[in-house]
Amino acid sequence: MHPKPATSHDHARRGMLLMLVSILLFSLMDAGLKTLSTHYPPFQVAAMRGASSLPLVLVWALWSVGWRPLLQVRWPLHLLRGVLGIMMMASFVYALGQLPLSTAYSIFFVAPLLITALSVPILGERVGPRRWTAITIGLLGVLVVLRPTGEGVLTTAGLAVLVAALGYAVSAITVRVLARTDSTQAITFWLLALMALGAGALAWPNWVPLRAEHAWIIGGIGIAGAIGQYAITEAFRLGEASLIAPLEYTALVWGVALDLALWGVLPDAITWFGAAIIIASGLYLIRREKVHAEAEHP
User: Fold this and answer.
1) Nearest alpha-carbon partner for 102 in 236, 234, 256, 239
2) Could you say which DSSP state residue 152 is in?
3) What is the pLDDT of residues 153-171, one digit of tens each?
4) d(C-alpha 139, C-alpha 134), whole Å
5) What is the pTM (predicted TM-score) of this model?
């Protein structure tokens, strides 16, 4: 008997599964970055993040599309993404050295809201009053997590996560532009390559010799990062963004689990409350964007 062809429902289910796997892998990668952040400077950890995944991504790119699409790219936008990637990763690593994973994730969840807000001036997209309201409420949720009263995490670490989220948001918008002409493989490869080279050059004056006991962590970061990137790319290719994107918030579950298992810490009630506001705003925004897209393309 011939196997039944895959239906759209099968593709959606596989996409959701791949998204969940990618979020788990990225959470494990972040736990590794947090561990390394106590031993090495942020720019050095950012360089190791890029370099450790680069060989696997290069093999995938050459196997799937060959070398030509890697060279025929829009270099100015890739260089911009490289700068943003270095800023984002170094800021996030710096924050991880001082904050629990779950707290950093709670603040970083503002990134989808920033992507929507920045799409107006950069891409010329129209955002209605309901979506602006969701963005505003989400930003208030960030203030709840940060607690700018001196008792919370409104420190350089908390602000560093916001810088990382902003860098991620701008980088994501450049991907929307790059994806019109450049392959996914080229977009992924050059981000990691430029991150490894640029962050490595910035880290070189204060480079700390690598310790042998950290080799497996660095290797694990590279494997988790590369496979996670492939999984999330496939997830968005197979499933609708409105179904796939909300699963990104499962990172908070993994962040809490890893914080408890590895560092014995849990977020407090106010952090949970702020995270709930941010996530609810993000989910509403995703729903409104789906409604908006369906209205424009019935």
Assistant:
1) 256
2) S
3) 558 888 999 999 999 989 8
4) 9
5) 0.89
